[in-house]
């Protein structure tokens, strides 16, 4: 970490000595090959970019900041996800219809919804959560509907009502208190009940759900799903 910061300080001295513009006569970047980004010592909106040994000062788009971890656009991360430390961040929004910032994620409605808006260069683009999930504005992403019970009905989202009891002789009982159930006509997903609410779970890539064992298996093991080995 110290080496990383010392590089930034050296870059800063070079840039400020040249008036904050492209440094034509600066020594070679730490890594003269490829593209590498480094944090600005004072501003979280700016960063240093070394492109095959050429040093430039770059600015994140509105709604984005640089922390060296995210790469939503041009090495920058969403402002709510970036860790700036003591570096200052200008969070002044540049709004367009449907977008508070030029880059960001937003709910498409204050109600429970499986859709959300992704703003790119100020253009609101509609997106949809994976089946069984809803958009959670608190985490800026999709989440289980039972974790947003104050506005979501998990049963309506998943299309399944969890039973209060499961017969002891059934396969579902083996997974109690999180019983599993197959999804009619869907070989790639299953339902598990958590605290009485349904969650739609997907099998891993290349596996299918066996309604007999209630587990995800290799395609050749799941006879009832023959021909459904491709991920939906």
Q: Any overview of this molecule?
A:
This protein has 232 residues and is mainly β. The protein folds into three domains: 20-90; 104-156, no CATH class; 160-221, Antimicrobial Protein, Tachycitin, Chain A. It is built from two helices and 15 strands. The chain has helices spanning 2-17, 154-158, and strands at residues 35-39, 46-51, 54-59, 64-65, 77-78, 104-107, 115-120, 123-128, 134-136, 141-143, 180-183, 186-194, 197-202, 208-210, 215-217. It has a three-stranded antiparallel sheet, with helices on one face. Strands 6-7-8 form a three-stranded antiparallel sheet, with no helix packed on it. A hairpin with a 7-residue loop joins strand 6 (104-107) and strand 7 (115-120). The longest helix has 16 residues, at 2-17. Mean pLDDT is 86; it is low at 1-27.
Please name the defining characteristics of this protein.
chitin-binding, 3-stranded antiparallel β-sheet, about 10% helix, Chitin-bd_dom, mainly beta, Chitin_bind-dev_reg, Antimicrobial Protein, Tachycitin, Chain A, elongated, 2 helices, disordered N terminus, about 230 residues
């Amino acid at each position: 970490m110290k080496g990383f910061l010392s590089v930034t300080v050296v870059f800063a001295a070079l840039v400020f000595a040249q008036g904050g513009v492209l440094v034509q006569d600066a020594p070679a970047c730490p890594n003269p090959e490829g593209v590498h980004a480094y944090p600005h010592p004072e501003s979280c909106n700016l960063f240093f970019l070394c492109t095959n040994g050429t040093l430039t000062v770059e600015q994140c788009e509105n709604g984005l900041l640089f922390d060296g971890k995210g790469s939503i656009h041009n090495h920058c991360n969403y402002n709510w996800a970036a860790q700036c430390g003591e570096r200052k961040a200008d969070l002044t929004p540049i709004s367009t219809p449907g977008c508070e910032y030029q880059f960001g994620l937003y709910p498409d409605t204050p109600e429970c919804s499986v859709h959300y808006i992704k703003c790119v260069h100020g253009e609101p683009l509609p997106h949809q959560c994976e089946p069984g999930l809803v958009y959670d504005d608190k985490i800026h992403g999709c989440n289980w509907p039972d974790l947003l019970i104050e506005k979501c009905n998990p049963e309506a989202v998943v299309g399944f009502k969890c039973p209060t009891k499961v017969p002891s002789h059934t396969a579902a009982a083996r997974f109690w208190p999180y019983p599993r159930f197959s999804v009619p006509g869907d070989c790639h997903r299953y339902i598990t009940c958590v605290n009485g609410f349904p969650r739609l779970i997907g099998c891993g890539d290349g596996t299918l759900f066996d309604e007999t064992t209630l587990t995800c298996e290799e395609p050749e093991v799941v006879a009832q799903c023959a021909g459904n080995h491709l991920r939906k």
